[in-house]
## 1
Amino acid sequence: AQSVSQHNHHVILSEAASLELGCNYSYGGTVNLFWYVQYPGQHLQLLLKYFSGDPLVKGIKGFEAEFIKSKFSFNLRKPSVQWSDTAEYYCAVMRGYQKVTFGTGTKLQVIP
Amino acid sequence: EPEVTQTPSHQVTQMGQEVILRCVPISNHLYFYWYRQILGQKVEFLVSFYNNEISEKSEIFDDQFSVERPDGSNFTLKIRSTKLEDSAMYFCASSDGVGETQYFGPGTRLLVL
């Protein structure tokens, strides 16, 4: 069965620190990859996506992610986090063009 | 920017009762989805719907669940006889094509007592 693993469940950073959240998936075929963010009290929002092409994708609010096919990974990065980045981050994989499988989420807390 | 909307935001029901959760997808989208998130767990796919038919469903989506597009704007999820374990946040999503980005609504928090 397809699975998505997020290695960090809870990350605490100070403002201006760099962020990297890990994501690995198990499916070996063609996949579409996403990172969604859920700010406190808000709904899931798309941060960035990878369908094809340049494996380094840039999203909103300074986030980027790199697809490394050989490692089945799609890690999320941001060079300098802000307090407003405090949220839950979900890696997600689409296979079969409809069903999206989510990781368990990483709760990011940024301390001012 | 167009958004997916869901009503109600919260619903409390007694075990065994029927509930209908409502969603208004983004207007030009043709593919619709339901997901749920039990407290403390990950978001799980329930069902996808296109052209008035279910196109894919998970093992969670058993005979107690049904979906419908009763008119040109609404997309509903019905749970016929709720169980305690149906308590979760239910998210509706829509996309404008197969394999395209799914946009999520704010969710309905269902509590079954």
## 2
Amino acid sequence: DAGVTQSPTHLIKTRGQQVTLRCSPISGHKSVSWYQQVLGQGPQFIFQYYEKEERGRGNFPDRFSARQFPNYSSELNVNALLLGDSALYLCASRLTASRGYTFGSGTRLTVV
Amino acid sequence: GENVEQHPSTLSVQEGDSAVIKCTYSDSASNYFPWYKQELGKRPQLIIDIRSNVGEKKDQRIAVTLNKTAKHFSLHITETQPEDSAVYFCAASKAGANSKLTFGKGITLSVRP
């Protein structure tokens, strides 16, 4: 079984640009969450989606948005990129609320 | 909101010794506490978790204990090996489909051969 897959693995963008990150959950997992991990810190919650509906949003500006598709894959969009958006963006999925989250390998975003 | 703190920030042990990593949380409504191991450049991997209806859980060399009254939980690794060297994150969340994980800042464990 494939794990959580994310694409691209690495990305370099210029300040002010927009970026879209993609995530495919483990087959059968309907819950997908996005986290931002800055170097030297723990992951910080951005969004949670379940059955294509937003179920939670972390303390991030409106420049961050996401959606979940009918096949439960998800996209994270960030507009008007800032240098401070440089981080590892992690996607996680889980089967049910009683099971733990499995993380993908992440997308390393560098904003220059 | 929930606040999770880890201490110490770094820990160095001799191979074969035990390591204990402690976390505290602030929200008494939290009832799910996972531990993740992250090696350099890799994804966080769930190594063990505990729910608030139990006080201890073991899996081979790894165990987690939970003290709900004091709002802290600990990861215990026995017979440490060099491959246990990594960053360990604790997290907390509430029950339900809308739960989010609140992570600590992580502890770097170094196991000296």
## 3
Amino acid sequence: DGGITQSPKYLFRKEGQNVTLSCEQNLNHDAMYWYRQDPGQGLRLIYYSQIVNDFQKGDIAEGYSVSREKKESFPLTVTSAQKNPTAFYLCASAMNLDYEQYFGPGTRLTVT
Amino acid sequence: AQSVTQPDIHITVSEGASLELRCNYSYGATPYLFWYVQSPGQGLQLLLKYFSGDTLVQGIKGFEAEFKRSQSSFNLRKPSVHWSDAAEYFCAGGSQGNLIFGKGTKLSVKP
């Protein structure tokens, strides 16, 4: 059953801790993305990767880091430098940069 | 600057009525255009896409959208809304993976 998985669905952390969100896809897609969604703001791009071992900053990359060591995996680390990390995080993938994106179910991160 | 605008934050329609959700884009060239739907606490599901060619595109769940270059619009339509269509709808446009999303239109359906 092909798709994109994100885990966990809900994540709670204390302020000052780094946290890593998982994103895995078995669609054999080259491109992967991370978005942040806040109420009334739509989706904002954090990072994207068009190929293994390569990734680019999006509009709001400050306080986040990513890696792309395997084609199917694109984990996102929310560092303590991110000033307002509480949000809904969505991972997406696409065949390549010129194709439509497919989204995972999301991870809701709450930092207190 | 490139932008995607959804002028309506919230729309309420009666079940069985027709629906049109507005989307306007601002790009130098014709962008790729998409409509996605999101249920509360879920990811986004692709409804339809426009890359080039026929300006009227059909999608899933009975939705369609029409690309109008002269109006810089890509409005989403459905002839008869079902209660299960209640959700938030996002228009997105861009190229080379640089998608810009509108802020969404929340659709409520009344019986």
